[in-house]
Design brief:
α1 crosses α5 and α4 packs antiparallel against α5. It is flat and about 135 Å long. With 698 residues, it is mainly β. It has six domains: 198 residues, Immunoglobulins (Immunoglobulin-like), CATH 2.60.40.10; 94 residues, Sandwich (Immunoglobulin-like); 88 residues, Immunoglobulins (Immunoglobulin-like), CATH 2.60.40.10; 86 residues, Sandwich (Immunoglobulin-like); 86 residues, Immunoglobulin-like, CATH 2.60.40.10; 85 residues, Immunoglobulins (Immunoglobulin-like). The N terminus is likely disordered.
Length: 698
C-alpha cells in the first residue's frame, strides 16, 4: 500500500512538472495546493462531521498521515481567540487497515459501497489498465472519486475511509467552530484545513426533491430537476418508476444516480436522467429520492406521470410552389416522394413574415393524395409566405421549405403623424409617433439632421417595427437644436413621404463666455466697477462676487438685465481691501468661468454718522408707504431718501430739508418688495455713511 501511494504521487509530479528543464537540470517541484471540504450536521446531542480532500493527490497523502479534528467555542460576547482550538481525537483519523474492512465489505456483507471503497483503497486494479502515465493518472483519479462517492452514500463506509467523525461532547445552545487538518508534513502537497461553524440549536431538515419537468420522447422519458436547488443538499439520487400507476415502485439503477461534475454537464442549470421504455403510450409514474453527503435519504419527490410517444414525423413535402393566379388567389403545389403508412394528410400555413407567425388556413388536413391547393383569400396588402406540412396520425408534422407568393403592390403607406420627442440631460432622445392604419406596414425609417435646411440622414439600417425610437446625441456642441423626420415602409418596400419635421431643443451643457472687468474707480463714497458683459446670447444673469480682506468669496449682487454693466459698491469701510470678480449664467443654468479678479483698497472718508433710526409702514388707507426717521446730529444738512425695488439698485426718490423727518411714497405697487435708506448731506460737503436699510413688502 505504501509503495503504491508513493508511485501514484510520483506520476502526478511528472505529469505536472516534467522530468528536466531545457538545460538538462532537474526542476525544483512546486507544492500542489488542495483544500479539505468540510460539512456538519447536528443529531440530538452529537454533531457529525464529514469531509474530503478536493484532489486525488491530497486524498492519498492524507490517507497516510491522517486527520486531526479540532473544536473551539464561539463566545456569546467578547473576542474569538484563534488559539483556543482543542484536539478532539487522540490518534489521527485514518482509513481502516485492510483486515478490518472484512466486517463491512466482506463476502457476507451486502454493503456495496464499502466494497467499492475497499477496492479504491487496496485493490490492485480498479477502472483502467495499462502502464502509461495518463492511464495511471486516470485510475488514480477514479479511485479518489469512487471513494468519496461511497463515503457520501454510506455512513459506515465514510467512517472506514477516515472521512467521518462524531463529536458526542457538544453542549446544547453553544456555537462551535470545527477545524479538520491533514497531519501530513509533505513538501509535495500543501493541504489547507477545512472549517465550519455549527450552532447546536440548528436542526437542518432534509428537503424534498422536486422533478421540474418530464419530457415524453419516442421510447424514452427524460426527467429534469433544478441543479442549484438540489446540489446544495444531495450528492446522488435514486430514480424510481411505477408501472402500475404509482402503487409499486422499483429503482432503475443498481447504484445511486450521480450529480454530474461540471465537465460532464450538458445543461448547467438542470440535472437530467433519461429512462428508456420499450412500449410507447404506456403511462408510467416517476419519483426521485435524494441522498445527502451523510448517507441519508430524503422523502420521495412528488410523482410525475409520462409516457413514451411516437415522435418520428413523416418526410417533408418538397418543391413547394406558390403562383399568383389573379386577384387574391395563389395556387400552391408540392411533391411527396414517400407516402408513409401513417400519413394523415397535409396542412398549409400562411404568414406575412418569412421567419414566424405561420397560421393554418383550414382545420382538417387535406387527404394524403393531395398535391395542390388554392388559397382564394391571400392578403393583397402584405406579403404571403407559405409552408406545407405533412402530418401523421400521431400528430407529428414535418414542414416544407418556405415559398413566397408574390402579389404586386405599388401603393406606399401614409407618412407617420403626431411626432413627439424629448431630450434628457444625458443626451438621450426619445421619439414617438402614431401607428399607421395600413395592414401591410413593415415598419418605420428614422432620419435626422442638425439643420432644417440640410439633407436628412437615416439612422435606422432597416425598418423599425415600433412607434418609439431612442437616439443618443452629444450635448457639448454649438448647435442648439436637432431635427427628425420619419417615413413609413410597407412589406413590399414602398416608402411614404417624410413626416412633418420634429424640432427638439438640446439641453444646454456649454457654459457662457466670461464677463470682463474693464475699469474701476475708488470714490469718496464707494468703489465703482465697470465691466463688459458676456457675449453669449443665452445669458440671463451676471453675478458679482466680493471678498473683504482675506475673507471668503460671497455672491454679492445679481444683475438680471444683460445691459447693466456698472455697479458702485457703497457698503465699504476705509482701510479695508475689497476683491471682485463676475460670473455669467445662461438660461440653462450653466456658469461661466470667473472673470479676472480685481482687488482695491477703499480710502474714502465717511465722517458723518449714518441714519439708522429709520422706519417704514403702510399708511392706514393702504395706498402708500410712510418712511420716518430720527437723526439727532448737529449741523446744517438735508436728507436724501433712496429706494430699491425687488433687490435692484437704490435710486433717489425724495430730497427733504433738515426739519423733515418723514416721506410718503405714493408711487408703489402691489406685490413689490421695497427697501429704503436715508442719508444726510451736509452743507460743508460731508455726508453720512450708508445706514440702516428698512424693508417692506406692499
Amino acid at each position: 500500500m505504501r509503495h503504491y501511494q508513493i508511485h501514484i504521487l510520483a506520476i502526478a509530479f511528472l505529469l505536472n512538472f516534467g522530468i528536466e528543464n531545457t538545460q538538462g537540470q532537474v526542476k525544483k517541484p512546486q507544492p500542489f495546493k488542495a483544500n479539505i471540504q468540510l460539512s456538519a450536521k447536528v443529531y440530538g446531542d452529537s454533531i457529525v462531521l464529514r469531509w474530503a480532500p478536493d484532489s486525488p493527490g491530497a486524498w492519498t497523502t492524507a490517507n497516510q498521515f491522517g486527520y486531526a479534528i479540532e473544536r473551539t467555542e464561539v463566545p456569546a460576547t467578547g473576542t474569538f481567540d484563534p488559539a483556543s482550538y482543542q484536539r478532539l481525537n487522540s490518534a489521527p483519523v485514518k482509513p481502516w487497515p485492510l483486515d478490518k474492512w472484512a466486517a463491512i465489505a466482506g463476502k457476507n456483507s451486502d454493503n456495496s459501497m464499502a466494497a467499492i471503497a475497499a477496492q479504491a483503497l487496496y485493490g490492485k486494479s480498479f477502472t483502467s489498465t495499462g502502464t502509461s502515465f495518463v492511464q495511471m493518472a486516470d485510475e488514480f483519479a477514479n479511485r479518489w472519486s469512487f471513494a468519496i462517492l461511497a463515503a457520501d452514500m454510506n455512513p459506515p463506509t465514510a467512517t472506514a475511509l477516515g472521512l467521518r467523525f462524531t463529536d458526542k461532547t457538544p453542549v446544547h445552545g453553544n456555537v462551535y467552530i470545527y477545524r479538520v487538518l491533514c497531519l501530513a508534513d509533505s513538501s509535495l502537497y500543501k493541504i489547507e484545513p477545512g472549517y465550519i461553524v455549527v450552532n447546536t440549536v440548528d436542526r437542518i431538515q432534509i428537503p424534498q426533491p422536486l422533478i421540474s419537468k418530464a419530457t415524453e420522447m419516442q421510447n424514452a422519458i427524460q426527467l429534469e430537476w433544478d441543479r442549484s436547488y438540489h446540489e446544495k443538499a444531495f450528492s446522488a439520487y435514486w430514480i424510481e418508476r411505477s408501472d402500475d400507476q404509482g402503487k409499486n415502485y422499483k429503482r432503475l439503477t443498481q447504484v445511486p444516480f450521480l450529480n454530474p461534475q461540471n465537465e460532464m454537464r450538458q445543461e448547467s442549470d438542470i440535472i437530467v436522467y433519461t429512462d428508456s421504455v420499450k412500449e410507447n403510450y404506456k403511462l408510467l409514474v416517476y419519483r426521485i429520492i435524494g441522498i445527502t453527503s451523510f448517507g441519508e435519504e430524503s422523502k420521495p419527490s412528488q410523482a410525475v406521470s409520462a409516457m413514451g410517444r411516437d415522435k418520428t414525423p413523416p418526410s417533408a413535402p418538397e418543391k413547394v410552389k406558390a403562383i399568383s393566379v389573379g386577384g387574391s388567389k395563389i395556387k400552391l403545389s408540392w411533391e411527396k416522394k414517400v407516402e408513409e403508412k401513417d400519413l394523415k394528410g397535409f396542412v398549409i400555413g400562411r404568414s406575412s413574415s418569412s421567419t414566424d407567425g405561420f397560421q393554418p388556413l383550414f382545420e382538417n388536413p387535406l387527404p394524403p393524395s393531395t398535391r395542390s391547393w388554392t388559397d382564394e383569400n391571400a392578403d393583397v396588402t402584405t406579403t404571403n409566405y407559405y409552408v406545407v406540412a405533412a402530418m401523421d396520425t400521431a400528430g407529428n408534422g414535418n414542414v416544407s421549405m418556405i415559398s413566397y407568393g408574390m402579389i404586386i403592390d405599388s401603393i406606399p403607406p401614409a407618412p407617420p403623424v403626431n411626432l413627439k420627442g424629448s431630450i434628457d440631460s444625458l443626451g438621450v432622445v426619445r421619439i414617438s409617433w402614431n401607428f399607421g392604419k395600413e395592414p401591410d406596414l413593415a415598419g418605420y425609417m428614422v432620419y435626422f439632421s442638425n439643420s432644417p435646411d440640410h439633407v436628412f440622414s437615416s439612422i435606422t439600417p432597416k425598418p423599425l417595427r415600433d412607434t418609439t425610437y431612442m437616439d443618443t446625441i452629444t450635448l457639448k456642441t454649438l448647435s442648439k437644436k436637432i431635427y427628425y423626420k420619419i417615413k413609413s415602409v410597407d412589406v413590399t418596400y414602398n416608402y411614404s413621404p417624410f413626416s412633418i419635421m420634429l424640432e427638439l431643443k438640446k439641453p444646454d451643457k456649454v457654459p457662457p463666455t466670461s464677463p470682463v472687468i474693464s475699469s474701476y474707480k475708488v470714490m469718496e463714497d464707494g468703489i465703482r466697477i465697470d465691466w463688459i458683459n458676456s457675449l453669449s446670447e443665452d445669458v440671463v444673469e451676471h453675478q458679482l462676487f466680493r471678498k473683504i480682506d482675506n475673507g471668503t468669496w460671497t455672491a454679492y449682487r445679481k444683475f438680471q438685465k444683460a445691459e447693466i454693466s456698472t455697479f458702485t459698491d457703497k457698503d465699504v469701510k476705509p482701510g479695508a481691501e475689497y476683491s471682485y470678480h463676475l460670473v455669467s449664467i445662461d438660461e440653462s443654468g450653466n456658469h461661466s468661468r470667473p472673470s479676472g479678479e480685481m482687488t482695491l483698497k477703499f480710502t474714502g472718508s465717511l465722517t458723518a454718522q449714518s441714519v439708522n433710526n429709520i422706519f417704514a409702514s403702510v399708511t392706514p388707507d393702504k395706498k402708500n408707504i410712510l418712511i420716518s426717521w430720527n437723526y439727532p446730529v448737529q449741523g446744517n444738512y438735508r436728507f436724501v431718501v433712496y429706494r430699491a425695488m425687488n433687490g435692484s439698485n437704490f435710486l433717489t426718490v425724495q430730497t427733504t430739508d433738515q426739519k423733515s423727518t418723514s416721506f410718503t411714497d405714493k408711487n408703489v405697487k402691489n406685490g413689490v418688495s421695497y427697501e429704503y435708506q436715508v442719508r444726510a448731506f451736509f452743507t460743508d460737503g460731508k455726508k453720512s455713511a450708508i445706514g440702516k436699510v428698512v424693508k417692506i413688502s406692499f
